[in-house]
Amino acid sequence: MIRVRAGIDGVPVYGAGRRGSVDDPVNQGFAQLASNESPFTPLPSVSDAIARAAAGVNRYPDIDGMVLRARLADAHGVEEDQIVLGCGSIEVCHQAVTISAGPGTEVVYAWPTFPEYTAITALAGARARRVPLAGARHDVVAMAKAVTEETRVVFVCNPNNPTGTALTGAELAYLLDAIPSWCLVVVDEAYAEFADAPEFGSALELLTAHENVLVLRTFSKAYGLAGLRVGYGVTSVEVASLLRLAKIPFSVGNVALAAAVASIDAGSELVARMATIKAERDRVANQLVGLGWDIPSSQANFLWIPASEARADAVARRCAESKVLIRQYPDGLRITIGTEEENGRLLDALGSPDDLPPTNVTVTATSLATRAESSPLDQ
Length: 379
Ligand SMILES: Cc1ncc(COP(=O)(O)O)c(C=O)c1O
Description:
Layout (H helix, E strand, L loop, with lengths): L30 E3 L10 H11 L11 H11 L6 E4 L2 H12 L5 E6 L4 H9 L2 E6 L7 H7 L4 E7 L11 H10 L5 E5 L24 E6 L12 E4 L2 H9 L8 H12 L1 H25 L10 E5 L2 H13 L2 E6 L2 E5 L3 H11 L17 H5 L7
Parallel strand pairs: 1-10, 3-4, 3-5, 5-6, 6-7
Antiparallel strand pairs: 2-8, 7-8, 9-11, 10-11
Helix pairs in contact: 1-8, 2-8, 3-4, 3-7, 5-6, 9-11
The chain binds pyridoxal-5'-phosphate.
């Protein structure tokens, strides 16, 4: 057996959402609502760009991804040197922790949230400090209080995966003001394109005042390129140059770069698709509430149903029998919004909570936070 670094065996394995079939996941008749993907296949213009780029894959990609970075800088009104790319935004999460945290330091994040923060923190040998959500939402006062001299990174997932809840601009501003400027704050906005509440605030608007803030965005969700792996961060020039030290060289391939640029070109068509998802999200949420489900309001492309493990298991099974795959957690269920047809199948499969066999434990949106710390998500 090889000798490994202390703590490596405690790193949790990433649990991907269930798929209909590994060989042919799209055509097996499953509604794939377990991985927060886009239900839309690529636009013709994006497919054309992918095909053109594929013809040149004998060459390495541009190591700096300059064309894409220039387009993103233009879109966000920042300098190209403020943009960092990654093999999905998940790579930029790794870069953030790699440059800042290590043994003897802490990483602060809410719980439950995107479970990969736990793995990245453990890989760095740092300690995780989890701050329970308050009623499925970030508790910004508790998060600010959790920051100590040892804290190197604070992750803020906004909107939060898996609960879908979002911070208001005022809450986010409070949190960023409260965290010392020597601590890197990663505001993970993987789902921000789906946030349409007027009070939602993106950290992009607060970057000028906070050089220690890194905002993450991705082409995987609203832009429908999850399979190609391209995401990015926007931050100060100083932080960006440090993050680039931790970037895996050539981690974003030329097909991914070309598809991302083509997606920016197809902005209005993709914005229309996002609007369709948001309308479906609100329709499904209203129907679920009408059926008697207790769900927090979502600003993402998924909904969260707090439930005890036994109840979540019963519901996930019922859905799987109807070929609807959803994501099961110890504290509830996360359902990605699919096409209108898929969402209809989901609603039929879910039915009313009154139809379920009785279980001893009931978890409501407001009781979720009290259970959060004692029931780690394993997927
Ligand atoms: C909150 C959050 N951040 C980041 C990611 C990673 O996305 P990607 O690496 O595909 O950009 C995900 C994926 O599910 C996510 O839910």
